[in-house]
Specification:
The chain contains 17 helices and 10 strands. The longest helix is centred in the C-terminal third of the chain and has 26 residues. Strand 3, helix 6 and strand 4 form a beta-alpha-beta unit. The protein has 3 domains: about 190 residues, Rossmann fold; about 70 residues, Helicase, Ruva Protein, domain 3 (Orthogonal Bundle); about 80 residues, Arc Repressor Mutant, subunit A. The protein is an alpha/beta fold. Helix 9 packs parallel to helix 11. The strands form 3 sheets. A 5-stranded parallel beta sheet has the order 2-3-4-1-5, sandwiched between helices.
């Protein structure tokens, strides 16, 4: 009898197999052992939607917990991030020392049942620095540390990000308390870091691109969970499934999940027929959860570029795209680079590009034309 469906096609859920990310996690493990002088003691994961950034944050927390470290996990898209991290730090202090040994400020906050709400108090950064300093000193005495993870950095309030970075620069880098950091962001956040002149901490964080899995890692991510649940997948089916995922972690889980579901209960072998049956639903889901949100974030010219690419049945020549758009090649190259960073396009050879998702071509062809996507002379 076969086990339950082993795949996890929801954002942030841990996949059954962490294929292709071992080197990065080994680096995080090494950084926690080495201490604050290791460049990856503070790091940011960059990747497009569906690449597995949140999963990497969860995995980094697991690495920390395996070392006996404490963790604080936050989402920067909600306001009041600094206040929430401070409260979490105080809770850790309380658990380590008991209320009678904490500073008066911390005891009062708990005994009065203070609730700062979503908005941080005026001295939020100063309070956070004090809380993290106290906690860091306690953990240093225990020969352990704290891992803070922050997801959705691109959506964060810029003032809060600057304040948080300033605090971390003091407690981690300057004072070398055992407080590590891992963040996750969409690629445009890297541009913010480069242009922000008050983000020394972010500038000094290591950066890891969470990109597409290679073919071998994709095959492993699909086949290993299937085999662990008592089924097998034939080579032809595995080739078709891995190709259809385009190496995106979320798509791997979608294809695996719906391929498994397409195989009748009790069947021991997953075939090409089951893969093809599962792909339709997987493509529909990735279109809704990855392609559509990314498309909404693109400029009209970005979309025109993609429509010009979608006219081809395979990879496109940049020179031909430029001709279709009635622009020069260097101008088209600017948008090529923007779309690579957005995760919609991948370079395939010199002067050639292809759509990153196998599902994207048909989806773009079916998208109704927005008048804003027309060249100015055609939209009058």
């Amino acid at each position: 009898m076969n086990g339950s469906n082993p795949f996890a096609p929801t954002f942030g859920s841990a996949p059954p197999v962490m294929a292709g990310r071992g080197d990065i996690l080994d680096t995080i493990h090494e950084a926690l052992i080495t201490g604050t002088t290791h460049p990856d003691y503070t790091t940011i994961f960059f990747g497009v939607r569906g690449a597995g950034k949140t999963v990497m944050l969860n995995a980094a927390e697991d690495v920390a917990r395996e070392q006996g470290w404490l963790t604080i996990s936050e989402d920067a898209s909600r306001s009041g991030m600094i206040a929430r991290i401070e409260r979490a730090a105080i809770r850790h202090i309380h658990a380590l020392t008991g209320p009678q040994k904490r500073r008066v400020r911390s005891v009062q906050a708990f005994s009065l049942g203070a609730d700062f709400g979503d908005a941080p108090p005026p001295d939020a950064a100063e309070s956070l620095r004090e809380a993290l300093s106290d906690l860091g000193d306690l953990l240093a005495n225990e020969a352990t540390g704290l891992m803070i993870t922050v997801d959705e950095l691109l959506s964060a309030d810029r003032h809060e990000i600057r304040e948080f970075g300033s605090v971390m620069q003091h407690v981690c880098r300057r004072e070398q308390r055992p407080i590590a950091f891992a963040g996750a962001a969409l690629p445009p956040f890297e541009e913010y870091i480069e242009t922000e002149d008050r983000s020394a901490f972010l500038h000094r964080c290591s950066r890891h691109d969470i990109g597409q899995l290679n073919r071998a890692d994709t095959r492993l991510a699909l086949s290993a969970p299937i085999e662990e649940q008592g089924r097998a997948i034939d080579d032809q089916a595995l080739d078709a499934a891995s190709l259809a995922t385009s190496g995106y972690a979320f798509m791997v889980q979608l294809v695996g999940f719906y391929t498994w579901a397409a195989a009748p209960a009790g069947s021991s072998l997953i075939t090409r027929e089951h893969v093809e049956s599962g792909l339709a639903e997987a493509n529909r889901r990735v279109s809704r959860h990855v392609l559509a949100p990314t498309w909404r974030d693109l400029s009209p010219i970005d979309r025109r570029f993609l429509r010009a690419m979608a006219a081809d049945d395979g990879e496109s020549r940049l020179a031909e795209i430029a001709q279709r758009l009635d622009v020069d090649v260097s101008y088209a190259g600017v948008y090529r680079q923007r779309l690579i960073r957005a995760g919609m396009v991948v370079p395939t050879a010199r002067g050639r590009v292809d759509l990153a998702h196998h599902a994207a071509r048909a989806w773009i062809r079916d998208m109704p034309l927005d008048p804003r996507e027309l060249p100015p002379k055609m939209s009058d």
